[in-house]
Amino acid sequence: MAPTARPSPPRKRGRPPKSSGRPPGATSARTPVAGRGYVQVALALPRFHLRVLESEGKFIGKRRSEVLEFLVQRKAGILDVNRSASAPKYEPDPKELATSERFIWHCPAEVKKRFDELRMAMGNIGAREWVIFAINEWIGLKAGIWGVGERS
Questions:
Q1: Does residue 100 fall inside a structural domain?
Q2: What pLDDT does 24 receive?
Q3: Separation of alpha carbons 8 and 22, rounded Å
Q4: Positive/negative CA dihedral, 108, 96, 75, 138
Q5: Which of 46, 49, 77, 152 has the fewest CB atoms lying closer than 10 Å?
Q6: Is residue 138 within 8 Å of residue 83, measured between CB atoms?
Q7: Can you name the residues that pair with 59 across neighbouring β-strands?
Q8: Rounded to whole angstroms, how far apart are CA atoms 107 and 99?
Q9: 145 near 97, Cβ under 8 Å?
Q10: What's the first-to-final CA gap in the chain, in angstroms?
Q11: Is residue 152 part of a domain?
C-alpha cells in the first residue's frame, strides 16, 4: 500500500506576532524602552570590545549599556574614577578585532547629548570609533591594541 500524502495545514493570513525587540529572557527592567527618555545608538563593534564590555559589566555588576554610560560620564568629567587593579586583563585576538557585531546601546538622552559633544571635541569622529577609543583607554591600551609591526 502506497503512503498517502497528508495535506499541509492551512496557512494563517495576516501579520506575524509583533516582537518585543528584546532577546529571550530579557525583561523591561533590563532593557530600557526608546521614547521614555532613552535613545538608541546602533554600533558595529569588534567582538573584542564587546567581550570587554561584557566582562567589565560583570565585574562591576552593570549592563554593557551602563558601562558605556559610565565611560561617557568619566570622559565628560562628571565621574572621577580609576579602574581597579584587580579588574580583568585582556589579550586581544586578531580574529576578534577583525569581526564586528551589531550592538544597540540604549542610553538616556542626556548621556547621548554628552556623547555627541565628546565626539565633536575629537574632530566629529564616529560613534564606533569613540567607543573603541574609550574602552581601550579604560583597560590601559591608550596607544592601541599593539604597536605597529608587532603583529602581522
A1: yes
A2: 41
A3: 32
A4: positive
A5: 152
A6: yes
A7: none
A8: 24
A9: yes
A10: 66
A11: no
Number of neighbours of residue 82 by Cβ within 10 angstroms: 8
Is 29 within a domain? no
For 77, the domain range is 47-82+90-138
Per the structure, the count of domains in the chain is: 1
Express each pLDDT in 83-121 by its tens digit.
999 999 998 889 999 999 999 999 999 999 999 999 999
| Residue 2 vs residues 5, 9, 106: alpha-carbon distances, Å | 9, 21, 58
In the structure grid, which three cell numbers stand for residue 118, read together? 565628546
pTM here is 0.73
Is 99 inside any structural domain? yes
Q: What are phi and psi for residue 68, nearest 5 degrees?
A: -65, -40
> How are the residues of the chain apportioned to helix, strand and coil, as percentages rounded to the nearest 5?
35, 10, 50
With a cut of 70, which residues of the chain have pLDDT below it?
Answer: 1-35, 142-152
